[in-house]
Amino acid sequence: MKKTSSNQIKLYADIILLMAFILTNVPHATGILLHEWISILFIIPILVHILLEWKWVVNVTKRMFKRLPGEVRFNHIWDLLIFIMMVFVLLNGFLISEAALPALGIHVTIDPFWSAMHNQSANLLMVMVGVHLAMHWSWIVSMIKRYVLYKPAQITQSTPQRGK
C-alpha cells in the first residue's frame, strides 16, 4: 500500500478549499440559502489549510525580522492579509444573513452599508486569492502532475533470462 504524502494531502485539501471558495462566490448560482451555509462550512477547509501549513507559518513568523527571502516575506504577509479579509467577509456576511442566521433563530436587520462592504470585500478577496494561486502556481501544477495526472508504471512481462 502506497503511503500518502503530506503534499498529496495538502493538494486534495486545497482542491476542496478552492471548490468551496468558488461556490461561495457565486451566490446567484447557488441561491442565498446555499451561499450562506456553504460560507459557514467554508470555515472548515480554511482551518485545515492553515493547520496543514502551520509549521511553515510558525517558522516564517519566527524569522520575519531576520534574514528571509523577499518572496517568502511577501507571501507570509499576503497570506495574513487574505486571512484577515476572509474573516472580514465572513463576519460582515453574518451581519447581512438572510437565511442561515434566521434559521438559527437570529434575526438581523440588513444594513445596506454592510451589504456593500460584504460585496466589495468579497470581490477584493477573489483578486487576492487569484494572486495567491499565481504565487503558488508551479507547486500546484507539479502536485497535480504528480498525484492527479500521473500514470502508474505499466506491468511488463518479464523477459526470459539467457541460458535457460
Task: Note the topology.
Blueprint: H1 6-24, H2 27-41, H3 43-52, H4 54-63, H5 70-95, H6 100-103, H7 112-135, H8 137-147
Helix pairs in contact: 1-2, 1-3, 5-7
Largest sheet: none
Query: What number of domains?
Result: 1
Q: Poorly predicted ranges (pLDDT <50, ≥5 residues)?
A: none
* Strand-pairing-aware structural class: mainly alpha
Write down the Rg.
Answer: 22 Å
What descriptors fit this protein?
164 residues, mainly alpha
Describe the structure in brief.
This protein is mainly alpha-helical.
Describe the structure.
This protein has 164 residues and is mostly helical. The chain has one domain. It has eight helices and no strands. Helix 1 (6-24) packs across helix 2. The longest helix has 26 residues, at 70-95. The radius of gyration is 22 Å and the shape is globular. The two termini are 34 Å apart.
